[in-house]
Q: What sequence folds into this?
């Protein structure tokens, strides 16, 4: 489903003062603490809602193998939901950062409640969450993230981040040893964005497709798998470009519904001569005269030295219209040669589809009272509606291309 930017911004603005905020570990500095959900139409909102500015007010010490208590501020807990706690080696995360989950909570996060709490945005939530840092995480500086998929209310995705230090924390954690330790952990799951494949289901506590080994399930949880597209993990939305997220290198989808690419258009079949204006299409590669209805395809003309195998060669593009033929001279134009006419003119005829002999050196195919004259190949003649050799040897047309006229025993 596609959402308008205006409607999403209005919804977020109306509810931003009533949501949740990470309290400990201490988040990055925000001039005005932003406790609303991720806005997929605002550049820099993902990740962390820091908009690219990462000022450290308090660096939390959190050593490998140590358990730290995570807690929150706010009252709009939306009956809890499911949360993940993740880390990245990037001290200033971006859309390209790789987040690895150290603990997942199914139900009751950030609070075990049936609805919302009292106390407003500054109220401290009683529920606390002990989270253990994996024992093999190397020393260094990391960024911690809390992500939340609420149980009740609009389908939203929340994310707050905090700077942390493991061990001495004297250097950057982006080392080969850190990459090796984090590679065994699952990717952080992203859902409920206008650009995500997965939309969770209200009144359910979402069950992550890959929650990791450290999983806590709330005592009043009502686990559910979510909606369509939630069976496979998504670790990040596409990068932002031009008003909505554009496709990136991550596993997340492009904005809007998935559309199968259209097959390439079929190339046009080349024609022997371009069709004159106003001509209706015909099934063959040969163009029709103007204002003439489509006729069945006839075989193409062979070289001049070969027997004639076609009765409908291409009309020159400059041929005049056959829409007003001359009056017929005979009631049986297929058997009686007509007077030769100038090239390109229309010879009248009455038997549509029949071969018309025009003199002895020209022929045409009767089409709605009009036969366009075509010169015969050298050594050929037209007699009684049949193209023959000058020595009167009949030409046998391939039977696959012959059609019996209704009420007649003669093939044409």
A:
């Amino acid at each position: 489903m596609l959402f308008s930017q205006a409607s999403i911004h209005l919804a977020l603005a109306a509810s931003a003062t009533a949501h949740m905020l990470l309290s400990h570990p201490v988040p990055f500095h925000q001039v005005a603490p932003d406790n609303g959900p991720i806005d997929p139409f605002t550049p820099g909102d993902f990740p962390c809602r820091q908009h690219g500015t990462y000022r450290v007010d308090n660096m939390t010490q959190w050593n490998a193998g140590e358990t730290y208590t995570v807690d929150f501020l706010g009252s709009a807990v939306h009956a809890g939901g499911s949360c993940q706690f993740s880390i990245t080696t990037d001290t200033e995360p971006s859309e390209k950062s790789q987040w690895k989950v150290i603990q997942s909570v199914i139900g009751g996060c950030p609070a075990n409640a049936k609805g919302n709490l009292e106390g407003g945005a500054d109220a401290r939530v009683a529920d606390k969450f002990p989270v253990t840092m994996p024992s093999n995480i190397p020393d260094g500086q990391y960024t911690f993230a809390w992500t939340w998929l609420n149980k009740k209310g609009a389908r939203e995705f929340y994310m707050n981040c905090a700077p942390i230090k493991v061990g001495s924390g004297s250097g950057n954690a982006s080392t080969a040893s850190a990459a090796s330790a984090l590679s065994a952990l699952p990717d952080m799951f992203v859902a409920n964005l206008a650009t995500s494949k997965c939309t969770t289901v209200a009144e359910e506590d979402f069950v992550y497709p890959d929650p990791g080994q450290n999983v806590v399930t709330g005592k009043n949880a009502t686990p559910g798998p979510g909606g369509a597209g939630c069976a496979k993990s998504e670790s990040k939305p596409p990068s932002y470009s031009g008003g909505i997220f554009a496709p990136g290198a991550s596993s997340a989808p492009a904005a809007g519904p998935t559309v199968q690419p259209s097959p390439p258009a079929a190339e046009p079949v080349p024609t022997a001569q371009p069709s004159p204006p106003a001509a209706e299409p015909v099934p063959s590669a040969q163009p029709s005269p103007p204002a003439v209805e489509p006729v069945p395809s006839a075989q193409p003309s062979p070289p001049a030295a070969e027997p004639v195998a076609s009765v409908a060669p291409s009309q020159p593009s400059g041929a005049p219209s056959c829409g007003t033929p001359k009056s017929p001279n005979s009631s049986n134009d297929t058997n009686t040669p007509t007077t030769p006419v100038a090239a390109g003119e229309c010879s009248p005829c009455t038997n549509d589809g029949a071969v018309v002999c025009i003199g002895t050196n020209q022929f045409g195919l009767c089409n709605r009272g009009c036969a366009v004259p075509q010169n015969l190949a050298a050594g050929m003649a037209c007699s009684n509606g049949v193209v023959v050799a000058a020595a009167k040897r009949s030409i046998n047309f391939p039977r696959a291309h012959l059609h019996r006229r209704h009420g007649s025993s003669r093939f044409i």
Q: What stands out?
A: Residues 137 and 180 are 9 Å apart (CA to CA).
